[in-house]
């Protein structure tokens, strides 16, 4: 066929075509606008147009991703109204119910196909279990999950109620001012205020972790209580940090108002006028900090109702006010409640029928084979946990509190690495780390580096070294403080802030898993997360690998599907071995007797 088509073409009167210089995409578009005839189609022209189009799309995607990642970092410093940066009226990407309310059905078929396959898989799994065991649903895990439910409920309610101590703490310790108040309670005293802040949070966290350890709960109750304890601690930290910053601004404004003259005399000098002008400008700046919106002003927001709404809102970053929806759609809430119940049933079936049996036989089959058997069920549970947490529960509480910013996640399934996944998978935690860990460290690091480069600390150090007869360039820091100062001068601020954020997140994950499992597996989860830092640098330095977006996404999915069940097996292996040894000893005793 192709030979016949080639033979039927008329021969060229000019012989072989001459090589022409390839024109750019802009030149071709200009020729089309001027009405010039298009150039003859050649394979080289096709490759040129295709490469220019791919380069254009790649640059657009990179610019969009860069601007998206820097929204909470760059604009936070430029814009004084932090709520307008972090919180805006937005919807979730995969919230099919919200899309239906808006009249969009772009993912209707995908959602219908996904849940139809999940339903068919569930029916097949239950039928197979009935054929082999004579029961439709295994009840062993249900007895474990709902055992001591009253004790867990009362403990969880007490946990949430104990967080309300922050309101009187802020009102009577940081905001209240008077002769009776000692100097170390002043929130502007950074060292004392930070130590007091840390002592309060560590004491609260240690108490509830110790409480959990004395209850004797099974692993299901321990896991839930440990996660809820961390969530409430994050809310406490965000509330205390934000209100301490506002209390400092409030005290500064009170002092400026007290010392500012009520009237200016006609004989005032120009320097005094400049001083008054700067003072009034500072007052306006402090007013914008204390009252970002007309309906919310600090310290009038220090109420139990305000903190109660913050507790119910699906966010971990405290602000005086959030964007709100006009009303509560109770049908939407009912749909999310039904979705939560349905996903929980599927989650229970997968765990009870596909995961627990393999974990119980792990001492005989080994860790590697158990990991292979759990790759599919673990990935399914991971997706179900995502939907039940960020699509059903978070959106349901957002609707109840009229919380308008529902961007709880981004397109994490397109992640090209673990660093991008950590930013897009769980945006409430990402926003908490960006606001309270990354940005403070970066700003303090930059300020210190700027002052050191200006010669504030370097000149003093060089003077002391010259007095001792030591060369400043050849000297090395001999103390811990000198080594830290050397690092703060040489390491860039974004790099230091990113490393500190990864370190804090890894410590938090490791402590949560250890408390939930009551076992420490030599910090495997901690080291696996910290290994992301060199991998991030390696992927950025290798230009060829950096531009392979599809390959990086494929490697990311392979790592996630394999290493999640592997870590689960490593952290639970000793527990199932001890359980098997206990059952064997109990079964052997009657035969020996």
Strand content: under 5%
State the share of residues found in helices, binned by percent. Answer: over 70%
- Approximate shape: globular
Q: Got a strand count?
A: 0
- Output the number of helix runs: 26
Report the structural category: mainly alpha
Largest sheet: none
Q: Cα-atom Rg, whole angstroms? A: 31 Å
Topology:
Layout: H1 2-7, H2 25-33, H3 43-69, H4 71-78, H5 82-86, H6 96-101, H7 108-133, H8 140-145, H9 149-162, H10 166-175, H11 190-213, H12 219-259, H13 270-290, H14 304-312, H15 330-360, H16 362-365, H17 367-400, H18 418-425, H19 427-454, H20 458-468, H21 480-490, H22 493-517, H23 524-530, H24 532-541, H25 543-546, H26 549-592
Helix pairs in contact: 7-15, 9-12, 10-12, 11-12, 12-13, 12-22, 15-17, 17-26, 19-22, 22-23
In short, what is this structure?
The chain is an all-alpha fold.
Please, could you describe this protein's structure?
This protein is mainly α and 593 residues long. It has 26 helices and no strands. Helix 12 packs antiparallel against helix 13 and helix 22 (493-517) packs antiparallel against helix 23. It is globular, with a radius of gyration of 31 Å. Residues 1-22, 62-84, 263-267, 456-478 and 584-593 have low confidence and may be disordered.
Describe the structure using short key phrases.
593 residues; mainly alpha; 26 helices; 0% strand; disordered N terminus; disordered C terminus
């Amino acid at each position: 066929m192709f030979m016949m088509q080639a033979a039927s073409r008329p021969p060229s009167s000019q012989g072989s075509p001459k090589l022409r210089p390839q024109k750019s995409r802009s030149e071709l578009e200009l020729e089309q606008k001027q009405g010039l005839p298009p150039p003859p189609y050649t394979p080289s022209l096709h490759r040129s147009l295709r490469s220019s189009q791919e380069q254009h799309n790649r640059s657009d995607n990179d610019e969009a991703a860069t601007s998206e990642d820097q929204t909470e970092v760059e604009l936070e410093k430029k814009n004084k109204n932090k709520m307008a940066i972090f919180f805006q009226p937005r919807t979730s990407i995969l919230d099919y119910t919200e899309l239906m309310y808006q009249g969009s059905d772009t993912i209707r078929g995908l959602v219908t196909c996904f849940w139809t396959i999940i339903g068919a898989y569930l029916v097949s799994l239950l039928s197979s279990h009935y054929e082999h065991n004579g029961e439709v649903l295994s009840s062993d895990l249900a007895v474990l999950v709902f055992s001591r439910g009253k004790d867990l409920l009362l403990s969880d309610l007490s946990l949430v109620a104990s967080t309300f101590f922050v309101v009187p703490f802020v009102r009577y310790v940081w905001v209240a001012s008077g002769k009776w108040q000692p100097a170390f309670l002043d929130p502007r005293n950074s060292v004392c205020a930070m130590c007091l802040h840390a002592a309060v949070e560590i004491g609260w966290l240690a108490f509830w972790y110790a409480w959990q350890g004395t209850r004797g709960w099974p692993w299901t109750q321990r896991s839930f209580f440990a996660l809820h304890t961390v969530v409430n601690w994050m809310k406490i930290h965000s509330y205390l940090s934000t209100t301490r910053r506002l209390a400092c601004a409030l005290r500064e404004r009170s002092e400026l108002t007290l010392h500012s003259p009520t009237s200016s005399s006609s004989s005032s000098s120009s320097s005094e006028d400049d001083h008054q002008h700067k003072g009034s400008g500072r007052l306006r700046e402090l007013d914008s900090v204390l009252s970002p919106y007309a309906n919310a002003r600090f310290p009038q927001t220090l109420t139990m109702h305000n903190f109660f709404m913050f507790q119910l809102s699906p966010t971990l970053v405290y602000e005086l006010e959030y964007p709100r929806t006009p009303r509560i759609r109770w049908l939407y809430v009912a749909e999310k409640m039904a979705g939560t119940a349905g996903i929980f049933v599927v989650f229970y079936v997968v765990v009870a029928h596909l995961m627990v049996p393999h974990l119980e036989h792990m001492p005989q089959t080994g860790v590697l084979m158990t990991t292979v058997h759990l790759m599919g069920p673990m990935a399914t549970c991971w997706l179900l946990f995502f939907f039940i947490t960020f699509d059903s529960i978070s959106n349901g509480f957002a609707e109840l509190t009229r919380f308008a910013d529902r961007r709880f996640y981004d397109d994490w399934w397109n992640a090209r690495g673990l660093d991008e996944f950590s930013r897009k998978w769980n945006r409430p935690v990402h926003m908490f780390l960006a606001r309270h860990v990354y940005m403070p460290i970066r700003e303090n690091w930059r300020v210190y580096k700027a002052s050191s480069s200006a010669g504030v600390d370097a000149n003093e150090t060089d003077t002391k070294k010259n007095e001792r007869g030591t060369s400043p360039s050849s000297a090395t820091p001999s103390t811990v403080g000198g080594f830290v100062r050397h690092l703060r001068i040489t390491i860039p601020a974004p790099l230091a802030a990113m490393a500190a954020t990864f370190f804090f997140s890894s410590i938090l994950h490791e402590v949560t898993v250890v408390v939930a499992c009551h076992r420490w597996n030599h910090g495997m989860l901690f080291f696996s997360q910290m290994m992301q830092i060199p991998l991030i640098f390696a992927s950025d330095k290798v230009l060829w690998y950096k531009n392979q977006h599809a390959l990086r996404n494929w490697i990311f999915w392979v790592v996630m599907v394999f290493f999640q069940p592997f870590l689960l097996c490593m952290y639970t292996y000793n527990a199932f071995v001890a359980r098997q040894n206990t059952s064997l000893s109990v079964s052997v005793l009657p035969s020996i007797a």
